Amino acid sequence: MQTDFQNILNGIKPLFDASKSREQLLADICAKLKEEVYHYDWVGFYLLDENANELVLGPYVGKPTEHTHIPVGKGVCGQVAESGESKVVQDVSTENNYIACSIDVQSEIVVPVMKNGKFVAEIDIDSHSAGPFTDEDEQFLGAICKMVAEQF
Ligand code: SME
After folding, report:
1. How does DSSP classify residue 4?
2. Which of 56, 95, 103, 108 to mutate to test ligand 1, by most ligand atoms within 8 A of the CB atom?
3. Is any atom of ligand 1 closer than 6 Å to the C-beta of 124?
4. So what's the pLDDT on residue 1?
5. Residue 108 CB less than 6 A away from ligand 1
6. Tally of CB atoms within 10 A around 121
């Protein structure tokens, strides 16, 4: 399925409304992404709790998950928190350091939100499709995370 990322990005920009709380903004972005991109089945933000050295689940859309707190370094999410670099797993069955959320998930992409060179949060997307992610997903989500960074 062809995704018009530029068009979706144009639809996301107006969500950045100054009168909105950060929580609401992140929730709106999650909803929009899940709605607009066919291969995004679970979309959420994890925020870094620096003192606890763990990720805490923020707004998300999709099935509830028990993984509301993830130590830095653990799972795909924790690895991205540690490296500050995006990670794409096209087939989660091949990933050793992986935390399973649902048996429906086949692939995952995590893109960091960096503020002044420091990791502050990340967007995590699970897909029920096999190997659906391309460089375009990474660039698209990177552009969103760059805008989100201004909220931290
Ligand atoms: N699969 C993630 C855990 C978070 S859930 O996808 C919501 C991981 O390996 O870090």
Report:
1. -
2. 108
3. yes
4. 59
5. yes
6. 24
If we measure between CA atoms, which residue out of 36, 108, 34, 37 comes closest to residue 75? 108
Phi, psi of 89 (to 5 degrees): -120, 105
pLDDT at 18: 82
pTM for the full model? 0.97
pLDDT at 2 (0 to 100): 75
Regarding the beta carbon of 75 and ligand 1, being less than 6 Å apart is answered yes
- pLDDT reported for residue 122: 98
- Assess contact for 55 and 47: CB atoms under 8 A: yes
In the reported structure, the alpha carbon of residue 68 is separated from the centroid of ligand 1 by a whole-number distance in angstroms of 10
- Whichever domain contains 90, its CATH number is 3.30.450.40
Using alpha carbons only, give the angle 134, 64, 136 rounded to the nearest 5 degrees.
10
What count of residues does the chain have? Answer: 152
Using an 8 Å Cβ cutoff, are 97 and 80 in contact? no
Alpha helices in the chain (DSSP H): 5-12, 22-36, 75-83, 135-149
State which residues of the chain have pLDDT below 70: 1
Count of domains for the chain = 1
Nearest CA to ligand 1 atom 6: 101
pLDDT at residue 42, rounded to an integer? 98
pLDDT of residue 63: 95
